[in-house]
Backbone:
């Protein structure tokens, strides 16, 4: 999402709406990735772990998702999981409907199973394939969604590759460069995104980046974007990586997104990550991009983020008293 996309949504924010919607379309996933936020025990707070939440299938899921979209009227819908391809039959019905509605949809997948070829004709669909590093590391972390399978399953599609940088990827200089080189060569890949691993409060894992790791990763990304045009890393995203916000209240992305879990009722807070994420170490690309955009000064005077925060407060007030 860019500055151009934010401004038209202002009216909705004023009316108390959140213009971005994210849905965990299923609780199921055949993978068990280390560092997966969706299956962290604290992800849904008191609503319990995602795998134990009731989810929907078939007609009930199709009708449920359509009802949610009609209710929230988002300008952008993110479909995540679990693994969305587990529900490919329902998505075969839903995605063409969203396309006819003109709704931009991003579907985040591990590409563990074939992506239906009919989806390539959906102009509003953005397929985002999660790949955790080069083949040896990725295959260890994300089997059965191995490199071999991904390469087979994306044939005929145009996809965005999304890599979350963890500490393990920074032990060898030039790792991110090698990653960008490999995926840049694949004709199916139209863009490459990098996020930085965002930890939960109190987390001590192999994935968590130290401040030095974070600085090293950002420095390498600055070089990588110069060499590989498919790597999308705007100055706004860089600004957000370099200077993350302190809390969810300051996070534009969290403030403008409604995140629903697999029962289509449970709200995920404070953002898609759920639980208690450490905003000061946030590496979410979307949040970084919006944070960077929010620091732009309108007319050289007031920050866009302050205007958005004020608009949202006014919107909530209006909704409350109306
Ligand atoms: S594919 Fe995604 S949802 Fe499934 S375990 Fe891995 S990170 Fe979690
Ligand atoms: S997206 Fe990042 S900055 Fe925003 S609330 Fe979540 S962890 Fe915090």
Residues:
């Amino acid at each position: 999402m860019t500055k151009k996309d934010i401004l038209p949504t202002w009216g909705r924010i004023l009316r108390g709406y959140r213009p971005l919607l994210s849905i965990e379309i299923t609780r199921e996933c055949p993978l068990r990735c280390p560092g997966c936020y969706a299956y962290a025990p604290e992800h849904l707070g008191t609503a319990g772990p995602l795998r134990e939440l009731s989810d929907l299938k078939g007609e009930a899921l199709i009708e449920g998702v359509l009802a949610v979209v009609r209710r929230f009227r988002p300008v952008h819908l993110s479909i995540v999981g679990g693994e969305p391809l587990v529900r490919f039959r329902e998505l075969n019905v839903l995605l063409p409907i969203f396309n006819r509605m003109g709704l931009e949809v991003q579907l985040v997948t591990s590409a563990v199973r074939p992506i239906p070829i009919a989806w390539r004709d959906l102009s509003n669909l953005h397929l985002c394939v999660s790949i955790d590093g080069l083949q040896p590391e990725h295959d260890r972390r994300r089997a059965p969604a191995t490199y071999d399978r991904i390469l087979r399953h994306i044939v005929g599609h145009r996809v965005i590759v999304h890599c979350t940088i963890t500490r393990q990827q920074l032990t060898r200089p030039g790792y991110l460069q090698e990653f960008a080189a490999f995926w840049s060569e694949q004709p199916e890949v139209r863009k490459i995104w990098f996020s930085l691993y965002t930890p939960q409060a109190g987390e001590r894992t192999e994935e968590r980046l130290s401040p030095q790791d974070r600085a090293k990763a950002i420095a390498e990304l600055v070089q990588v974007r110069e060499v590989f045009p498919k790597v999308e890393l705007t100055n706004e995203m860089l600004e957000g990586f370099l200077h993350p916000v302190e809390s969810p209240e300051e996070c534009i992305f969290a403030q403008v997104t409604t995140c629903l879990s697999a029962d289509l009722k449970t709200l995920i807070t404070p953002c898609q990550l759920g639980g208690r994420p450490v905003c000061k170490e946030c590496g979410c690309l979307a949040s970084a991009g919006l944070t960077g955009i929010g620091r732009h000064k309108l007319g050289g005077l007031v920050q866009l983020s302050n205007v958005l925060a004020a608009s949202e407060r006014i919107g909530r007030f209006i909704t409350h008293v109306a």
About this structure: The pocket of iron/sulfur cluster (ligand 1) is lined by residues 29, 31-33, 36, 38-39, 81-83, 110 (CB under 6 Å). The mean pLDDT is 90.
